[in-house]
Every structure is written in structure tokens, then in C-alpha cells.
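Methods — Computational structure assignment.
A single polypeptide chain was analysed. Its primary sequence is given first, followed by the predicted tertiary structure written as C-alpha cells.
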Amino acid sequence: MSSTSQYNYAKGDTMLLHYLVREPKIQAENPPLLLLLHGVGSNEKDLFSRADQFPDEFLVISARAPFTISENHYRWFAVDFSSGRPIINAEEAEKSRTVLIQFINQLKEKHSFNSNAIYLGGFSQGAIMSFSVGLTQPQKLKGIIALSGRILTEIKPIIASKEKLKKLNALIIHGTKDTILPIEYGRQSKSIVDELGIPNTYVEFNYAHTVTPETIQTINEWLAKH
């Protein structure tokens, strides 16, 4: 792998990504892991502000995206909406996908958790990256949680086989009033995961590009079932 400085990764000890941790409130030798990814322009503190609302038995980790926009503002990849639809920097998106896969491996060396119970979830660009990692490396995850995101066309050539994907689970939540990534993206994601044979739950809420208490409640109910 190329040096971290070349890709302007955020530095945190020797880890590829800087992150925050909420230890399980119920002690266990190998707890399940919920790894959270923020949206473009935000940071690891965003979803982590809700960490105590997630199930007590989980180790909750919130990671900072590797590319800096400005102080306290980060991205997984650059995106341009000026054409009316999102045009991405595919090279950055691929670098972030690769970094996240290696970051999960690093976490295993620093934290105790059940490697067979890793849930990767995020909001907006964080949801996109959750799809990108999960659909290409499904053996690493038990589930994907995608909030107001989409599946990148760019990853379709490297999506794993249906045989490998059938062990994955997905929760897709999208707002019908979303003007950043309209509801069509959520419905497209649902269609794609259906075609790939991935067991999934799809929920639409009457809200915009946001996360609400009912979003968290839906996530917790889904986690309890899986």
C-alpha cells in the first residue's frame, strides 16, 4: 500500500483513520461491532453523538473520512452536484474503500470484538461507502446499514458473487423528501440488493436528508433481529 501521506489520510496513532470509541455497556469478551461512517463535510463526531442510543452490547466506533475539505470537515470522496446529479471522484472513492477494508483489519488488532458480527453503517456518503465495502468484501461484514445513500455505478464490476453476498444483510433507510440524494436512489439500492440476493429491510420515512430518532429506533430494532 502507498504511504498514508500520499493520500492525505487523517492521522491517529498508527491507524489509517482517526476514530472515536464507545465501549460496550454490557461487558463481553467479543462484542458485536457497529462501525459508523459520516457524510461529506462532516466528521467522526457527527454520528458518534448518537453512540449512547445504540444497543448496550455493541462496541461502537465512528471513523473520520480520509480526505480533508477544511478544518473539522472531511470527505470519503469529492462530489460535484452542479450537473443536477452527483459526479464523483472515482479515484478517491476507491482509495477510501480500500482504506476502510484495511482499517477494519487494523481494528481487529486494537480492539476485542466478534469478527463475525461487524455492522458497517453510515449516512449519505457514509452509506455509499458502506455499500462499497459490503458489496465487494461481504465476508468481512454481517450487515450494512445505509442511511440516505446510494450504490456507486463504479463498484459494479467488482461486486462479489451472489454466493458470497447471500450471507450479508442490509438495512436501507431513505427519506421521501430528500433533495440531496432523492428517494429514487434509495429505491434503486433496494432493487440492486434484491437482484443480488441479499436479505434486506427497506424503510422510507417522510423526511429530508437527515437522521432522526425514528431512524435510530429502526436501526436498533433491525440490529436486535440480526
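Note: The mean pLDDT is 92.
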